[in-house]
TrEMBL record:
Gene Ontology terms describing biological process: pyrroloquinoline quinone biosynthetic process
One MF annotation (Gene Ontology) recorded for this entry: pyrroloquinoline-quinone synthase activity
Functional description taken from the UniProt entry: Ring cyclization and eight-electron oxidation of 3a-(2-amino-2-carboxyethyl)-4,5-dioxo-4,5,6,7,8,9-hexahydroquinoline-7,9-dicarboxylic-acid to PQQ.
Protein name: Pyrroloquinoline-quinone synthase
Amino acid sequence: MADEHPLSREELATSLRGLSARYWDKHPFHLRLHAGGCSPDEVRAWVANRWHYQRCLSQKNAAIIANCPLPEVRRRWVERITFQDGTGDGEGGLEEWLVLADAVGLDPAEVRDERRVLPGVRFAVDGYLNFCRTRPWTEGAAAALTELFSPDLMADRIRAWRRHYDWIKPYGFAYFEHRIPVVRRDSQDTLALVLDHCRTREQQDAAVAALSFKCDVLRTILDVVDYAGAQR
């Protein structure tokens, strides 16, 4: 019989942080990407396919807000949409991702219209969006806790890309440079929300499962991009 006793805050935090081993930084494609082993076409494929994930982030954050009955949480969470979409045309994380696309030699218009997005990537990302639309807001928030693991990876990416891919135009790193301090703050806020609002063992187990699912989504993106590149 499963243990139904709620975890302490420390135990739940440890369980969530323990999923770092499932994060996509351990994926063979990511290891190769940071070691300088990817061709320009592989780097471009990663950027073009990651666009679909970037584009869906505001929609999944809006879904979390829509499912949340707490105004104090909604007020905090809406900042994520503003970061990604900006407050006007030509601003925000999405626009900076298109700048990255240009910096690696892609046509931003082709990235925006998603002609380069692979079906498996679309399936994985859309599954994540549907998860956040249909599950309790606490699970959507928990799934976002991959941000606990991402700041150091983004910092490593900037260093690795500058070292190994000098053909990438330097202005392309703006998204990562702007995102790192934001995600460091957001990750601690999100962890506190999950620890505060996941009080029953059922809620806590669901939060851990949600973060595990999100790790699977990210790794699936790399599986698809890596496989497609190997078939060329």
